[in-house]
Amino acid sequence: MYSLCTSLGLLLAAVVYMKLWIDHRRTIWITAEIMADIYNQDAYSRRIAQEAIEKYNTHIERCNRAIEAAEHGEAVSTTGSEIEQLRGELACVASERDTVTREKDLAREELRKKSEIMAALSIRLEALTNKSGASGAAKQSSDLQGADPQLVTHINNLQEQLYAERHTNRKLKGA
Question: Against a cut of 0.70, is the pTM above it?
Protein backbone atom coordinates (compact mmCIF):
# COMPACT_ATOMS: atom_id res chain seq x y z
CA MET A 1 0.00 0.00 0.00
CA TYR A 2 2.88 2.33 0.90
CA SER A 3 4.51 1.71 -2.52
CA LEU A 4 1.25 2.42 -4.29
CA CYS A 5 0.74 5.72 -2.44
CA THR A 6 4.35 6.73 -3.02
CA SER A 7 4.09 5.86 -6.73
CA LEU A 8 0.86 7.83 -7.08
CA GLY A 9 2.40 10.77 -5.21
CA LEU A 10 5.48 10.73 -7.45
CA LEU A 11 3.28 10.42 -10.56
CA LEU A 12 1.16 13.36 -9.39
CA ALA A 13 4.29 15.41 -8.63
CA ALA A 14 5.63 14.60 -12.14
CA VAL A 15 2.35 15.72 -13.76
CA VAL A 16 2.34 18.96 -11.75
CA TYR A 17 6.00 19.57 -12.66
CA MET A 18 5.27 18.96 -16.38
CA LYS A 19 2.30 21.38 -16.24
CA LEU A 20 4.42 24.07 -14.60
CA TRP A 21 7.26 23.47 -17.08
CA ILE A 22 4.84 23.78 -20.11
CA ASP A 23 3.28 26.97 -18.65
CA HIS A 24 6.76 28.42 -18.10
CA ARG A 25 7.75 27.63 -21.71
CA ARG A 26 4.55 29.33 -22.98
CA THR A 27 5.31 32.37 -20.85
CA ILE A 28 8.85 32.52 -22.21
CA TRP A 29 7.59 32.25 -25.84
CA ILE A 30 4.98 34.96 -25.31
CA THR A 31 7.59 37.19 -23.66
CA ALA A 32 9.98 36.59 -26.56
CA GLU A 33 7.26 37.52 -29.09
CA ILE A 34 6.43 40.70 -27.16
CA MET A 35 10.12 41.63 -26.96
CA ALA A 36 10.51 41.06 -30.72
CA ASP A 37 7.47 43.28 -31.42
CA ILE A 38 8.86 45.99 -29.16
CA TYR A 39 12.26 45.80 -30.84
CA ASN A 40 10.72 46.00 -34.33
CA GLN A 41 8.54 48.96 -33.33
CA ASP A 42 11.56 50.70 -31.82
CA ALA A 43 13.61 50.16 -34.99
CA TYR A 44 10.74 51.44 -37.15
CA SER A 45 10.24 54.52 -34.94
CA ARG A 46 13.95 55.32 -35.00
CA ARG A 47 14.05 55.01 -38.80
CA ILE A 48 11.01 57.29 -39.26
CA ALA A 49 12.42 59.79 -36.76
CA GLN A 50 15.78 59.81 -38.57
CA GLU A 51 14.04 60.47 -41.91
CA ALA A 52 12.03 63.32 -40.38
CA ILE A 53 15.16 64.82 -38.82
CA GLU A 54 17.01 64.64 -42.14
CA LYS A 55 14.10 66.27 -43.94
CA TYR A 56 13.92 69.04 -41.33
CA ASN A 57 17.68 69.62 -41.42
CA THR A 58 17.64 69.82 -45.23
CA HIS A 59 14.82 72.36 -45.09
CA ILE A 60 16.57 74.48 -42.46
CA GLU A 61 19.82 74.31 -44.43
CA ARG A 62 18.03 75.51 -47.57
CA CYS A 63 16.36 78.33 -45.62
CA ASN A 64 19.70 79.38 -44.14
CA ARG A 65 21.27 79.46 -47.60
CA ALA A 66 18.40 81.61 -48.86
CA ILE A 67 18.78 84.01 -45.93
CA GLU A 68 22.55 84.23 -46.41
CA ALA A 69 22.11 84.77 -50.15
CA ALA A 70 19.61 87.54 -49.49
CA GLU A 71 21.99 89.21 -47.05
CA HIS A 72 24.82 89.14 -49.57
CA GLY A 73 22.58 90.17 -52.47
CA GLU A 74 23.05 86.91 -54.38
CA ALA A 75 20.38 85.08 -56.31
CA VAL A 76 18.77 82.14 -54.57
CA SER A 77 19.63 78.88 -56.29
CA THR A 78 16.80 76.42 -56.50
CA THR A 79 16.46 73.28 -58.47
CA GLY A 80 15.42 73.90 -62.06
CA SER A 81 13.02 70.96 -61.98
CA GLU A 82 11.18 72.48 -59.00
CA ILE A 83 10.83 75.79 -60.82
CA GLU A 84 9.59 74.07 -63.97
CA GLN A 85 7.15 71.99 -61.96
CA LEU A 86 5.76 75.07 -60.23
CA ARG A 87 5.50 76.94 -63.51
CA GLY A 88 3.63 74.00 -65.03
CA GLU A 89 1.20 73.98 -62.11
CA LEU A 90 0.72 77.72 -62.44
CA ALA A 91 0.00 77.39 -66.17
CA CYS A 92 -2.57 74.62 -65.52
CA VAL A 93 -4.35 76.66 -62.86
CA ALA A 94 -4.33 79.76 -65.08
CA SER A 95 -5.81 77.83 -68.02
CA GLU A 96 -8.52 76.36 -65.79
CA ARG A 97 -9.32 79.83 -64.48
CA ASP A 98 -9.56 81.22 -68.03
CA THR A 99 -11.83 78.37 -69.09
CA VAL A 100 -14.16 78.91 -66.14
CA THR A 101 -14.22 82.67 -66.77
CA ARG A 102 -15.11 82.13 -70.44
CA GLU A 103 -17.88 79.68 -69.54
CA LYS A 104 -19.24 82.11 -66.98
CA ASP A 105 -19.25 84.98 -69.52
CA LEU A 106 -20.98 82.80 -72.12
CA ALA A 107 -23.63 81.78 -69.62
CA ARG A 108 -24.22 85.42 -68.65
CA GLU A 109 -24.56 86.46 -72.28
CA GLU A 110 -26.94 83.60 -72.99
CA LEU A 111 -29.01 84.49 -69.93
CA ARG A 112 -29.12 88.16 -71.00
CA LYS A 113 -30.34 87.18 -74.49
CA LYS A 114 -33.00 84.89 -73.07
CA SER A 115 -34.15 87.64 -70.70
CA GLU A 116 -34.49 90.04 -73.64
CA ILE A 117 -36.48 87.47 -75.60
CA MET A 118 -38.75 86.80 -72.62
CA ALA A 119 -39.30 90.55 -72.12
CA ALA A 120 -40.17 91.00 -75.80
CA LEU A 121 -42.56 88.06 -75.71
CA SER A 122 -44.16 89.36 -72.52
CA ILE A 123 -44.71 92.75 -74.17
CA ARG A 124 -46.25 91.08 -77.22
CA LEU A 125 -48.46 88.90 -75.03
CA GLU A 126 -49.56 91.95 -73.02
CA ALA A 127 -50.38 93.80 -76.25
CA LEU A 128 -52.50 90.88 -77.39
CA THR A 129 -54.20 90.78 -74.02
CA ASN A 130 -54.90 94.53 -74.12
CA LYS A 131 -56.46 94.25 -77.57
CA SER A 132 -58.82 91.60 -76.33
CA GLY A 133 -59.41 93.54 -73.06
CA ALA A 134 -61.18 96.31 -74.97
CA SER A 135 -63.97 93.97 -75.96
CA GLY A 136 -64.68 92.75 -72.43
CA ALA A 137 -63.49 90.53 -69.64
CA ALA A 138 -65.55 87.54 -70.79
CA LYS A 139 -64.01 87.71 -74.23
CA GLN A 140 -60.46 87.93 -72.81
CA SER A 141 -60.20 84.25 -71.80
CA SER A 142 -61.56 83.09 -75.15
CA ASP A 143 -59.12 85.39 -77.04
CA LEU A 144 -56.14 83.88 -75.22
CA GLN A 145 -57.30 80.45 -76.22
CA GLY A 146 -57.87 81.67 -79.77
CA ALA A 147 -54.44 83.35 -79.93
CA ASP A 148 -51.86 82.28 -82.47
CA PRO A 149 -51.07 78.65 -81.55
CA GLN A 150 -47.50 78.99 -82.80
CA LEU A 151 -46.93 81.95 -80.47
CA VAL A 152 -48.36 80.07 -77.50
CA THR A 153 -46.26 77.02 -78.35
CA HIS A 154 -43.16 79.19 -78.67
CA ILE A 155 -43.84 80.85 -75.29
CA ASN A 156 -44.36 77.45 -73.66
CA ASN A 157 -41.10 76.15 -75.17
CA LEU A 158 -39.23 79.21 -73.91
CA GLN A 159 -40.68 78.76 -70.44
CA GLU A 160 -39.59 75.11 -70.41
CA GLN A 161 -36.10 76.15 -71.50
CA LEU A 162 -36.04 78.82 -68.80
CA TYR A 163 -36.99 76.28 -66.12
CA ALA A 164 -34.37 73.85 -67.44
CA GLU A 165 -31.68 76.56 -67.40
CA ARG A 166 -32.62 77.57 -63.86
CA HIS A 167 -32.35 73.94 -62.80
CA THR A 168 -28.94 73.65 -64.50
CA ASN A 169 -27.76 76.86 -62.84
CA ARG A 170 -28.84 75.59 -59.43
CA LYS A 171 -26.87 72.39 -60.04
CA LEU A 172 -23.82 74.38 -61.09
CA LYS A 173 -24.06 76.61 -58.04
CA GLY A 174 -24.38 73.53 -55.84
CA ALA A 175 -27.77 74.50 -54.42
Answer: no
